[in-house]
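Page 37, continued from 36.
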């Protein structure tokens, strides 16, 4: 059901997605789905989406699936948003003068130039990110710093903005970034509607780390730490003292501290606090539960402890956080 049934063609945005062989399918499909679902939620065609390749021919994604090209680089004009996706195919195009000339030409004509995942490296190859804040996938860290040292890389952030230039760090963060852009264009209510339509959480904020606790826990080589993390996530309200965590992990408190520092770059207590904070934020963003109940469900137990944690780690209070990011916020 649409929430903005009126026709607002004067606010329609023309989104062009750059296509090339071996592009990452999700880098194209994720943002495209967000903008496409926005049209349904809004009740009018707020976003017109098309793909462009150098010669106007269809292209093959990294999965082997072919995608249709709607136009060629030469015929692209008047794009509100230019999306530059990433994928394994970028490695053959970082020195592509034709692609660089196209991005350089189209950049002044766009309101936003949006780089997804390793697509930031393509944008950087055209010199468009020199001196600008940007991010890319963590696996491309060495390449990013070596080949594009003039870029102000913030590789610990899931997405960044510097004027009209937007970058996301990885595959699903392209969805986060697209949701953030929909929120900017049409408000929180519309972005929440799209997130629910796609059955994803409302977007993570750009300052969050792409090395977040859940991702680090999934990638740890230590089975005992992985099992301990699963226990904490399943029951955050339990009294997770360092002694208890060490007993569950079958190790000493000293060894546990060393393991957490190695795997997560933080001590066990801070790890638990950040997980409780993440759970509390989800409740504040997506429910109208009382603050006292959220404090209990997320493991802080008392409102006072939750307030202290929010102030220390986020610089804001739970009530202010809900007012800004909660589901009833419409701005």
């Amino acid at each position: 059901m649409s929430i903005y049934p009126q026709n607002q063609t004067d606010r329609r945005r023309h989104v062009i997605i750059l296509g090339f062989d071996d592009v990452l399918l999700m880098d194209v499909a994720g943002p495209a789905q967000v903008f496409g679902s926005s049209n349904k939620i809004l009740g009018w065609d707020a976003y017109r989406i098309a793909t462009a390749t150098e010669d106007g021919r269809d292209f093959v994604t990294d999965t082997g699936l072919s995608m249709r090209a709607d136009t060629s680089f030469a015929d692209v004009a008047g794009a509100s948003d230019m999306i530059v996706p990433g994928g394994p195919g970028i490695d053959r195009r970082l020195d592509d003068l034709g692609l660089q000339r196209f991005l350089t030409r189209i950049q002044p004509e766009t309101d936003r130039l949006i780089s997804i995942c390793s697509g930031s490296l393509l944008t950087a190859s055209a010199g468009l990110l020199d001196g600008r804040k940007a991010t890319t996938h963590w696996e491309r860290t060495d390449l990013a710093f070596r080949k594009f040292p003039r870029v102000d890389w913030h590789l610990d952030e899931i997405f960044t903005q510097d004027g009209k230039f937007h970058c996301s760090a990885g595959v699903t963060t392209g969805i986060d970034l697209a949701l953030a852009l929909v929120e900017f264009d049409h408000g929180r209510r519309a972005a929440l509607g799209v997130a629910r339509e796609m059955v994803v959480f409302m977007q993570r904020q750009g300052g969050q780390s792409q090395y977040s606790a859940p991702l680090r826990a999934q990638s740890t080589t230590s089975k005992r730490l992985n099992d301990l993390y699963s226990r904490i996530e399943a029951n955050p309200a339990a009294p997770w003292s360092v002694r208890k965590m060490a007993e569950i992990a079958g190790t000493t408190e000293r060894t546990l501290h060393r393991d957490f520092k190695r795997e997560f770059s933080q001590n066990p207590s801070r790890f638990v606090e950040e997980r409780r904070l993440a759970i509390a934020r989800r409740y504040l963003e997506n429910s109208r539960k009382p603050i006292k109940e959220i404090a209990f469900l997320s493991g802080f137990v008392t409102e006072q402890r939750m307030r202290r944690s929010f102030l220390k780690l986020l610089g804001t209070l739970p009530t202010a956080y809900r007012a800004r990011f909660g589901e009833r916020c419409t701005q």
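The chain has 14 helices and eleven strands. Flag for discussion at group meeting. Residues 268-286 form the longest helix (19 residues).
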